[in-house]
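Re: magnesium ion structure - here you go.
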Amino acid sequence: MSRPHMLRGIGVSPGVAWAPALVVRLDFPDVPDRTVGAEEVPGEIRRLQAAVRVVVGHLTKLGQRALERAGPEESRIFDAQILMAQDADFLASVEQLIRNNQLSAETAYEFKALELRQLFSGSGSAQLRDRLADLHAIQMRMLHRLMGRKEEELWSIPAGEQVIVVAHELAPGLTVQLDREHVVGLISEEGTNTSHAAILAHSLGIPAVMGLSGALDEIRSGTVLLLDGQSGAVVLEPTRAELEDARVRVSRRQRFEMQLEGVLQEPAATPDGVVITLMGNVDLPDEIDAAVSHGAEGVGLLRTEFLVTGRATMPTEDEQTGYFQRVAHAFGGHPVVIRSYDLGGDKFPAAFKAPAEANPFLGWRSIRVCLDRPELFRAQLRAVLRAAHGRNIQLMLPLVTRVEEVVRAREMLAEEAAALQAAGVRAADTVPVGVMIETPAAVVIADLLARESAFFSVGTNDLTQYTMAVDRGNARLAARFTPMHPSIVRQLRTIRECGAAAGLPVSVCGEMASDPLGAVLLLGLGYRRLSVAPPAIPLVKWVIRNVPEAAARDAAERALAATDAAGVVAALREGIGGHVDLRMVSPP
Ligand code: PEP
Ligand code: MG
C-alpha cells in the first residue's frame, strides 16, 4: 500500500518547516525477570536509590534549562516530575518487593511502575490522567538507568543536521532538550494544544503538529517532511513545487509580519470608524510583557489556575495580591479582569487534591469548587480586593450556570470587603463582578444573569465544548470542535443582544476572538471588546483596521444564515475577501 502524501493533525505552534524526520521511540526497555540472591538484596536497593538520585539530578538540569529557555512556569513542569520521581510511598513499595521476592531493582521497579500506570490511566481524575505523560517519562528514565543506559544514549540528533522530531508522545523533558537550531519542527501522535509539550513548543518558537494519529506507522527517520504548525498539515516527501510554495509562503509571511509590526501603535479601529477595545489574555506571568508590547489595552482574562500548576501548595493571599498588583501595574490604568479559580476539568493541579470523577468536565469544577471550598475562594477574593485598592481591577466568575452562584459569590466578596475594612487593611470597597458566558445554560438565562452582573465575557472554548458535546482536549474530535458552528454563532448573537438590552458591556475572551475570521464575525455581530492571546494581537488588530464594520456586519448576517460550520467560514471569507489577503488570515 502506498504511503499517504499528507497527514493532518492539530497545529499547536505556528510556523512552516521542512526537514528529514528523526523518529524518536522513547519506549520502555524490555526488562528481563531477574531474581537475586539474598545477599544481593541490599545492593539492589542501593542501586535503586542511586538511580533515583541520577534521574532527579537530570530532571533538575532539565528544569534549569526550561527556566533559561522558556520561563519559570515551564520549569515548574519538572518540579512536579521531581516530586513524582521521589515519591516515598512508591519507592518503599519497590524496596519491599525487592526484599520479599528477591527481585532485581529493575524487575521490581517495572512491576510496581506498571501497577501505578494502570491505576493512573483507569482513573476518572483528570489530575491523575494529566500526569500520565509525566509518569511515563520518569519511569522510562528510571528503567533505562537501572538497565545501565545513559540518558544521552536514548536519542540523539546527527551532528550538524536539521530534523523534524517525530514521536508517539512528546514529554516536556524531550521538548525542552531540543535545540532550536537543529530541531526545526515537532510532530507527535498524542497531545493537543493544551498539553504541556505544546505550551513549551510554543514558548520555544518551534513549529509543531500534535494529535497526528498514525505518524509512526507512516513516517520513517529520513522521510522528508513539510510541516505547517498553523493548519496542522504534514506533507510526506513534498514535491519540489510544494517546497517552492512553502518558501514563498514563508517569505510572504515574513513580509506580512513586518507590516503587522506597523499596526502595533495604531488604534484598533475599522476603516469606517468603529473602535474596538483589544485586550490580552494572560495565562502565565511571562505573557505580561508580550501583551504590553503588543499594545493590549488591559487584560480581558487573567487566568489564575496557572499560579498553581506544578506546585505542591496553593498560592497564599499575599502572593496572589502581589501578582495581581504586578499585572495591574504593567497595564497602567487599563482594566485587568481577574478570573477566579477555574480549577477542575483538565486543570486540577497537584496542589489541589481533587476527587476522582467519571466525567471531570461535567463535574466538580470552577465556580462550584470555589463556592464549596470557601477558604480557597475567600483568600482569592481578599487578594483581588487588596490589589484593587487604587487600581482598575475587575473580577470574573467562570462556568456559571445558575443565578445563585453569582449572588453567593457577590455576598462572599462583600463579606470579605467588610472584614478587610474592619481590620484596617488597605483594600477596595468592592470590584465590578462579571460573569463568563460559557455554558448553554448561561446563554439561556443571560437576561437573568445580567441583573446580577457588571459585565459579560464569552468563553467560546467551553461554550463550544458544552454545546457541541465535544471534549475540547480530545485529539480525535479536533475537527469537530469549532466555534463556527451555527449553534455557537446563534448563541453569540443572543448573548450580545441580552447584554445590550441590559446595558452591560459584553466581551469575548475565548480563542475564537484570537482567530482573525472569528474576530470579524464578532465585530459583525456587534461585539466591541475582544480579549485575545498576546501573539494574536497584531493580526487581529490588522484585520480590524482593514475590514469595514459594514462589511463585517454583512458577512455576519450571511454567516447567521449558514447551515453548517463550513458555510459560516465560507460566508466570512467571502465577505472580507475584498478587504484583506485571505492567505494571511486563514489557511483555506
Ligand atoms: C473559554 O472557555 O472560552 C475560556 C476563555 O476559558 P478557558 O479556556 O480557560 O476554559
Ligand atoms: Mg472556560
